[in-house]
Amino acid sequence: MTYQSKRGLRGLLTAGALAVAATMPLKVQAEETYNLALLSDFSGPYADIMPILAGGREAVFTWWNETRGRELGVKLNYKNYETRYDAAQVASLWPGIKSELDPIAVVGLGGPDVAALSERLPEDKIPMFMATAAYGFAWQPDAWIFNPRPTYSHESVGFLNWMREQRGGDEPLKVAILASEASPAYVDMAKGLELYAEEHPEEIDLVEVIYTEVQPTDLTGQMRRVVRAGAEALVIQTNTSIVVAAKRGLQANGANIPIMMSSHNGLPASGGALGGLEQLEGDFEAYGMAIAADEDTPARQFYETLVADYGLEAPWNVVTAMGISQGLYTVTVINHAIEANGAEGLTGEMVREALFAKPITTEETHGFLPTLSFTPEAPFPLQGLKVNVGTVKDGKITIEATGVDVPHVEKW
Amino acid sequence: MVYFINDIITGALIGLLYSLVAMGFVVIYRASKVFNFAQGELVIIGGFIVWFTTMQAGLSLWLSIPLSLVLAGLVGYAIERIFLTKLIGESVFSMVMVTVGLLILLRGLVLLVFGPAVRPFPIIFPLKPLFLGDMLIPMNLLIGGIITIVAAVGLSWFFNRTRSGLRMTAVAEDHVVASSMGISVKGSIAFAWVLGAILSTIGAMIFLSGKSLTFLASDIGFAALPVALFAGLESIGGLILAGVIIGIVQSLTTNYLDPLIGGSLGSVVPYIIMLAILLIRPTGLFGWRTIERV
């Protein structure tokens, strides 16, 4: 290299360095980092849906870090912990999670997390945000565990009242429940609806409550009882295996009673397990969250953004929607907490206070959730509850109804 | 009355399915005195093999069923060769502990190899039930019941009337003595595991036909446990009676008591029967009473 070329290169580097320096802000904003503990089930009963749900919530954290988080100078780190959907496993992991991460919030999955941590989190002053509907056994004031959706019983009651209105007439809707004693959460789903039906006999006539195993051997006999009782709807909020066995039982009886499923065992999951969505033609899924149908909705558009720009690989379905909505209301609450307290020194307690201080609007969750107004009275919003209803038409999931009102349900 | 009889028939057929799965327990126990805690896991391994050959490889049922049985037999053989053959002559307890380890290992392997998704299981038996007047009998359970009875008769004859079967019984009595008498202990135990895996695969086909396949299906192993203990762990013929009794009691409890109490007593009642029989007659209904001469 000649002297002249060396001088030229030095000049070029100097000019480049000056240009970079000129574009930099005078004071580089310091980045605050906070941790989130993600409780996951990659090898237990929900192992089939976990990768998709995890993909949804993690993509939201990436999106928030690169957009709003960057503006605020905050980064949210997260780490998944394998719980196998087992309360004992959650309880044994928790001390380690706390000392390793010192999280400002826990992102939970289901009933075992609630059972294991409901006594610990108030002491540790760390809130937990769930993806699912709430549980009657956890319906207590001054909660530290929060659900964006009301209880499963609220959701089924909302759906059944909508169905009765669609049917018309003054008679109560004849309903059967298929539940399982394999999990306290499954029993809870049935108990809440049973109490509502008992208190509102003019609305719901509960003709059968059947408990079965999580992988039933045969439900032909049980479904015959349901058919003979004249049920107009069958509520199954447990798992896909029970939906499949019930469907086969109904088919064996030559009956086609509409099944109502929830989000975690909804139309795509149960349809897949049955060998095709067309087998669930005319069945329903209902929950207080956006339905992942083909229609172009704000929720769908946000999902497309996550896919295009933030590495989300999960398909557009209810489980992904559940993960995204969980991620969105978690980051929105943290956002509110930062707005109220500043980016530095944020604690779990501040995050919980922010949840009560300000509603989480439906715009902030891109239409995935209705506007949520939490109060210290319950772990889920008690006012303005809505459910959306999806169904299968011509082999495709379509939105049947949105913003269906949920009536008042007494605590059980 | 018709529905009552129908519930009895369906219950008996479900009980026969439990008997078939329990046959896997008994075959392995009769050849090695080892209680295989991973019996339910053998059912899902068999289920996944059937699923793979039909739904993934796209083979016709006529081809995939025999192929699945052969592959299941090979899996049983491999399990015995890898995990159990080195324990021959050691205490039975250590072999039983290996089956507990197998339970965890096989569950993990299923997740690792096939993933966690719930899969549609092929429709092997007709979905349309058999109608007898007002009675309705699920076809998979009916055909399964016939298969179970045929298998029980065949295996009883094999164990009680053939030299190979009697040799396997001798192996179970004492590995060292059987070996000194020129009986191939390794061969007998390996054959029992091959048979156990094949029976489990047939059980998976009856249990899961037209339903969904996940590792939750392994719970059938626990459902079959009361049948095996009720019959007595050495009696293949006794499994039929025990299965029918437990199935009928469970069905009647599920259909007539559960609606009254609002719970799932039907899932628990087989275990209550099992505990009661263990208290009254620890060897089960048809189990062998060991006479020890001092």
From TrEMBL, chain A:
Coiled coil: none
Protein family (similarity comment): Belongs to the leucine-binding protein family.
Protein name: ABC transporter substrate-binding protein
Organism: Ruegeria aquimaris
Signal peptide per UniProt: 1-30
Alphabetical list of Pfam families matching this protein: Peripla_BP_6
InterPro entries, per database record: Leu-bd, Peripla_BP_I
Domain Leucine-binding protein as annotated: residue spans: 34-359
Source species, domain of life: Bacteria
Record key words, sorted: Signal
From TrEMBL, chain B:
GO molecular function: transmembrane transporter activity
InterPro entries, per the entry: ABC_transp_permease (IPR001851), BCAA_transport_permease (IPR052157)
Membrane-protein topology: Multi-pass membrane protein
UniProt keyword Transmembrane, yes or no: yes
Organism expressing this protein natively: Sulfitobacter alexandrii
Protein name: Branched-chain amino acid ABC transporter permease
Higher taxonomy: Bacteria, Pseudomonadati, Pseudomonadota, Alphaproteobacteria, Rhodobacterales
Protein localization: Cell membrane
Protein family: Belongs to the binding-protein-dependent transport system permease family. LivHM subfamily.
Lineage top rank: taxon: Bacteria
GO cellular component entries: plasma membrane
Principal place of residence: membrane
Gene Ontology biological-process entries: amino acid transport
Annotated transmembrane regions: 12-29, 34-53, 59-79, 91-115, 135-159, 189-208, 220-248, 260-280
Keyword Transmembrane attributed: yes
Pfam families (UniProt xref): BPD_transp_2
Keywords from the UniProt entry: Amino-acid transport, Cell membrane, Membrane, Plasmid, Transmembrane, Transmembrane helix, Transport
